[in-house]
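Case study.
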Amino acid sequence: MALDKKGIAQRIAQELRDGWYVNLGIGIPTLVANYIPVGIEVEFQSENGVLGMGPFPFEGEEDADLINAGKQTITTMKGASFFDSATSFAMIRGQHVQLTVLGAMEVSENGDIANWKIPGKMVKGMGGAMDLVASADNIIVAMMHSNRAGVSKLLKKCSLPLTGVGCVKKVVTDLAVLEIREGAFHLVERAPGVSVEEIQSKTEGNLIINGEVPEMSL
Amino acid sequence: MNKVINNVTEALVGIEDNMTLMLGGFGLCGIPENSIAELVKIGVTGLTCISNNAGVDDFGLGLLLQNKQIKKMISSYVGENDEFERQMLSGELEVDLIPQGSLAERCRAGGAGIPAFFTPAGYGTEVAEDKEVRTFNGKPHILESALTADFAIVKAWKGDTEGNLVFKATARNFNPMMAMAGKVTIAEVEELVPAGGLNPNEIHTPGIFVQRIFQGEKFEKRIEQRTTRTK
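After joint prediction, the assembly is written out as follows.
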C-alpha cells in the first residue's frame, strides 16, 4: 500500500541523526517533527528566525509574535533562540544546518527541483527555498510520486521554473525511497506492498533498480 | 538624542508618491500595522514596497494593494494573498520575486555599505537572469545588489527615546536589516521607554539606525494560521 503523508514523514524521520539542526519546509516536511526516533536529539530551525522550535501551542496560548515559516503559531523548546532573517540565512548558506526537508512539484533525474511557480497559473514565490536548496549539503524531498492528474513528478527534466539545480540527493514519496546520483533515480526502498513495477511505471525519469529492493520498515 | 515623534501621522511626514519603502515583518508577524493603516489614510500611490510578503487580502500590505497604492513589490513569497497574485498575473503590479535569504542580505548590505555580494541562491533559475555568475570553491554564485529605501518602516516590541529597539520572538525577522537600510527609518513600538529603560546588553537594533520612533496606538497582531494542539 502506498504511504500517506504521515507515512512519508515517518520514513524521513529515520534519516535524522543525533545532534543535527534541521530545517523542515511547509506541508509533509512539517510532520517529520512528530516522528523523531527515540534517543535522538535534533533541533528544528525555522527560517523566519527561530532555533529550537517546539510543538503547536495549547489553545488559548497562541502568540502572534511566535510563528514558523508557514505562519503557524508555535512554541519553543528550552534553549531556543531567536534571530533576524540575515542571521537565519547565514545559518543556512553557511551550512550550519545539517538537513533540509522540503516539498516539490517536480524533481529531475539530475537533482533539479521545481516548487515555486506554475507560469500563468500559480505564483507563490520561492520564499527561502532557493537559499535552502542552493546551500544545503543534505536535502531530502518529501512528495507524492505523481501529481493529482496522475502524472509522474520524478522526471527526466523539470518542466516548471526551477528552484535549484542539481541539488536534490534523496526523495521520499508515497511509493519509494530514491537516491539521485549520476543522473538517475536509484530505487533504494519500496513502500510496504508496492511493487517495483508500479514504481517503474510511475517514474518518468531514468530509474535504476539494483537487485532485490527491500520494503521500508516503519 | 531624542527621536520621539508624537504620533503616526507626524512619523510618516515626508512620504510621497513614487517613493521606495521597506516594511518589516514576515507574514503578518512583526509588521508596522499602525504605519500601514496611516499609509492607506494618506493615500500615497506609485509606491515600491520592499517586504518579504504582502500581507493577506484585508490586513498588512494587502490593504495598500487593495487600494492600488503599490506600483511594485519586491518580495520573496506571496502565497497567502489572492489580490497580490491576481494583480501580478494580470500585469497590473510589477513584482520582483527574490529568494528570502537574498532579500534579507540585500537589505543588510544596503545598510552596511556593501554594494553587492555573491550568493549561490537562485543560480540556474529565473532569478539568475541577467546577473553576473562567478564560481567560488567550484560552485557557481550570482551577483546580488544591495537594497536601500527612501523610508524604512519597522516594528519593535520595545524602544527607547534614543531609538534603540528590542524585538519579540519571531517578530524580529526583517526589521533589523530594514532599519539599517532606510535613508530615514521610522520605528513603531508597542512600548516606548525613557533612555536607560532598556538594558544596553540586550538591544537588537542600536538607535543610530533609527531616526524617528513612536508608540503605536493599537496593535491588532492578527494571527495568519492559528494552529494549536489539545491538552
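Observations recorded in class. Residues 43 and 69 of chain B are 7 Å apart (CA to CA). Chain B touches chain A through 59 residues (CB under 8 Å). We will return to this complex in the next lecture.
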